[in-house]
Amino acid sequence: MRINGHDKYATSKSETSDVRSLTSILSRMRERKQANRYASLTSTMLNEALLFLLDALLQPFAALLLLRFHLQWLRAPMRNPLGEFIMTLTNFLVLRARRFIPAAWGFDVASLLLAFAVEAIYLTATLWAQGFPFIGFPWLGLLVWTAVKLIKLSVYLLMGALVTQAILSWVNPHSPIEGLLNVVTYPFLAPLRRRIPPLGNIDLTVLVLIIVCQLILIVPMGWLESMAVRLL
User: Fold this and answer.
1) Per-residue pLDDT for 10 more than 90?
2) 89 and 63 Cβ atoms separated by less than 8 Å
3) N or C: which end of the chain has fewer CB within 10 A?
4) CA 35, 39, 45, 49 torsion: positive or negative?
């Protein structure tokens, strides 16, 4: 069978068209892959930015509300720079909430419930940013996790007060916030001071209490948090 020049030209043209079509398809596939990669990278960066803002703004605000609750029930003096700072940042929400949520048994229930709500919003937003599926969302698990997180925050606040008080005792014993810190730490240090005498002029009870707090965070609180996460 003989193939004339016209057939050869048609065959060559068809092959060239097929190659161009295949090249076009491969090019579009590469473009889509690059676009998907860019979209994925952009989504990851936005999620990281959102998580950073949640950690920098919402979580500290929940800690401030919780600290205000603890200072209230401990009857800590608020006429000092730290107390005024806390009230200035939280009054706009706490004072409004107190119109509907009265105090009970001497506890500032409004501040506690607000801290709980803000922490729950923080955890929900964190799960959403991490792609958690919200279909049939286990609200019981979220409530338990929020309660555990507030207890952990309380322990961290106590540790922060202990460290700050220890530093101020060396650099500025007459700091205006010394009275507030003493009210926060004294109920926890007093039982230890009755059993652990000072070593020379060094009070070891602060170090002992910090170690106890760290053990609480590692063992019981770690177990409770793992149980709460399993409910999600």
Assistant:
1) no
2) no
3) N
4) positive
Distance CA 204, CA 226 (A): 32
The four Cα atoms 156, 88, 118, 101 give a dihedral, to 10 degrees, of 110
Q: Are 164 and 206 in contact (CB under 8 A)?
A: no
What is the DSSP annotation of 112-167? HHHHHHHHHHHHHHHHHHTT---TT--HHHHHHHHHHHHHHHHHHHHHHHHHHHHH
Give the residue-averaged pLDDT of 43-47.
78
More confident residue, 145 or 2: 145
The span from the CA of 125 to the CA of 119, in Å, is 10
pLDDT at residue 198, rounded to an integer: 87
DSSP assignment, residue 102? -
The number of residues making up the chain comes to 232
Domain boundaries defined on the chain: 52-230
Burial of 95 (0-12, 13-18, 19+ CB in 10 A): exposed
Encode pLDDT of 72-93 as tens digits.
999 999 999 999 999 999 999 9
Mean of pLDDT over the chain: 86
Q: What is the phi/psi pair of residue 109, to 5°?
A: -65, -35
